[in-house]
Amino acid sequence: MIKRAPRNRKTKLFVLDTNVLMHDPTSLFRFEEHDVFVPIMTLEELDNNKKGMSEVARNARQASRTMDEVVTSCLDGIDAGIDLKGPSHDLATGKLFLQTEAINVVLPAALPTAKGDNQILAVVMHLVERFPKRPVILVSKDINMRIKARALGLAAQDYFNDKVLEDTDLLYTGWLELPADFWDTHGKGMESWKEDGRTYYRIKGPLAAGMLINEFLFQDGGTPLQAWVKEKNGRSVLIETLTDYAHTKNNVWGITARNREQNFALNLLMNPEIDFVTLLGQAGTGKTLLTLAAALTQVLEAKRYSEIIMTRVTVPVGEDIGFLPGTEEEKMAPWMGALEDNLDVLNGTTGEGGDWGRAATRDLIRSRIKIKSLNFMRGRTFINKFLIIDEAQNLTPKQMKTLITRAGPGTKVVCLGNIAQIDTPYLTEGSSGLTFVVDRFKDWPHSGHITLQRGERSRLADHAAEVL
Prior knowledge:
Elements: E1 13-16, H1 18-23, E2 35-38, H2 40-48, H3 55-72, E3 82-83, E4 95-98, H4 116-130, E5 136-139, H5 143-151, E6 155-157, E7 175-177, H6 182-186, E8 191-195, E9 198-204, E10 216-219, E11 225-233, E12 236-241, H7 260-269, E13 276-281, H8 287-301, E14 307-312, H9 328-332, H10 337-347, H11 354-367, E15 369-371, E16 385-390, H12 397-404, E17 412-417, H13 433-440, E18 447-452, H14 459-467
Parallel strand pairs: 1-2, 1-5, 2-4, 5-6, 7-10, 13-17, 13-18, 14-15, 14-16, 16-17
Antiparallel strand pairs: 3-4, 8-9, 9-12, 10-11, 11-12
Helix pairs in contact: 2-4, 7-8, 8-10, 12-13
């Protein structure tokens, strides 16, 4: 146990629950100047969860390896705490304490001592008694564990370090509505010219400083404008007008944009200079349909990419229906209902030709779409492919990194999702991998993001999304 009083009374002592280490194996180094305490039961539970090929098992093994490196770096014995400054490369300056003695704390009769969670609570109670003047805080991703801790009068909190944003309303939308007086306040010294059918404006002003590259700008009214930021230099930006995909002459595989955000999304999806696209939106906003239409056009007509690869996280909404027969593609087929539904729509837009023509077109389309499971993605490199990651809100930031780093030369990656529909345990809107990549990629010249607002599926679906 901790043998001596802390150096500074203001530093806190954080007791880690197992799920924190399994969620983020590097969490030991995320508490800055504060000390970290790992109970023996946390190590037991890590040991119980280390077997298997799941993400949780991998994280448990990684957490154990990280702890082993920290412990072996200590030359003086572990009773007085292990300095984290060296192992964390100056990320943390506190100490790591491991439970080195048996703790005998009497828990309330209603809490069975055989349960791991309750043994960790007993450790927290012991530390509170031992250091009455020092803040001792339990850190857990388990809501019930935090409620139990507070019921016992202990301080408990969620692990916030992996959260990109506290409030997802502040998440980057990818577009900005210009105020009515925008040209009056930003028109001084403006340059404007036409090139290849596009109009360019170089503007300066207070709003320009906050704009991001590939952010979409729009203004309604007498002279409507839809444009996007192509270059940024301090308080000066270069904006370019968009291709109007709402017009039938610019249709993408027979699909036209039905609203402003869909037009923005198609400009990102059809631009060969944009390697990474994220589309957020509730059910029925057209995320999958637009992406598949753009993918088919660029694979079958423009020959820009060799094939479409589609994947998604296999997290069931209800009870699991057990093992599925067949090959990898056949096992993934029940998860890819959205793909089949959208192909039915797109196949109906390819013109006349009767049932035979449609069947032949469908076979041609299916031959160019590969459905892959996330489980076999490690170590792969996709060259010249159009990679679609559906239901990306269910991915952790680490899984998202694994997937996006599969992209080789000439590959475009599109992530689709709705952060209001997260099915993965312990993931929240603030810590989802989709929120993570939207925030991290928002000012990279070869990426773009759009939050789709209006549902276009049906009046029933739109009303259900609002009222249910």
